[in-house]
Amino acid sequence: MVIPVNEHISLSEAAISLSFIRASGPGGQNVNKVATAVQLRFDTKVEPHLPHGVLMRLDRLAGQRMNREGVVVISADRFRTQERNRADALARLVALVAAAAHVDKPRRATRPTRASIERRIKGKSLRGGIKKMRQTTPTDD
Hints:
37% helix, alpha+beta, Double Stranded RNA Binding Domain
């Protein structure tokens, strides 16, 4: 089964492994008995569909969540049930890969127009005139 990220990228379930651990936080009497937290591991070396550029940006975006072997580890324990924590972890992984797949448009350097430069200079001189009016002049006694 594949998990779609966008129209060009999808993740295979072979690269994702889930383990369930005991969660801290809400859970009532079950908190010490039931393993509801999810630890999702996504192995980028196993995933065949990720382009190199996406992998590089994913490494930068994941930060400490990615280890040296190229495995992204996401822990989810916000909810009381395994199903909701599993869905939360998968949604966070898809959002992370989608953010890595987004390429920012390179900025083209532009110059300000002559009219905008003149407006800026005029505004500066007006502001300087206001400040000059505030100054007190020494009086001769």
